Amino acid sequence: MNLVEDFNDYRSRMNEKISSADNLILKRLFNLDTNCYAPGEVDQVTKEMIGLACSMVLRCDDCVKYHLGKCKELGVSDAQIQEVFSIATLIGGTIVIPHLRRAVEYWEALSTAHHE
């Protein structure tokens, strides 16, 4: 089992199915999401770290994985990720700890995949 490949393959496959339905509202939501994380007054790295923290607080593992992947692509360091994890866990409380565990596991998997 490869956490990173499995997640990315599933996400891509399902996004294609959603897109093929040609639903205008869903297309607009996806576009809004894409545009929100584009560079603007706030740089892209900061936006992804904000997205990561919010996703952890909201306890969305898929969103956490997505933002961790983007953070890895953008060169976010282990120390920066640990600070984001700290902020998210502080804000979200102890109920976030199981998501923190999975986030740490996925970040390690991204680091392994990145070095191969």
Automatic annotation (TrEMBL):
Query: Keywords of this protein's UniProt record, alphabetized?
Result: Oxidoreductase, Peroxidase
A single MF term (Gene Ontology): peroxiredoxin activity
**Which residue ranges does the record assign to the Carboxymuconolactone decarboxylase-like domain?**
26-105
Q: InterPro entries under this entry?
A: AhpD-like, AhpD_core, CMD-like
Output the Pfam families linked to this UniProt entry.
CMD
Signal sequence range:
none
What is the recorded name of this protein?
AhpD family alkylhydroperoxidase
**Organism, scientific name:** Rhabdobacter roseus
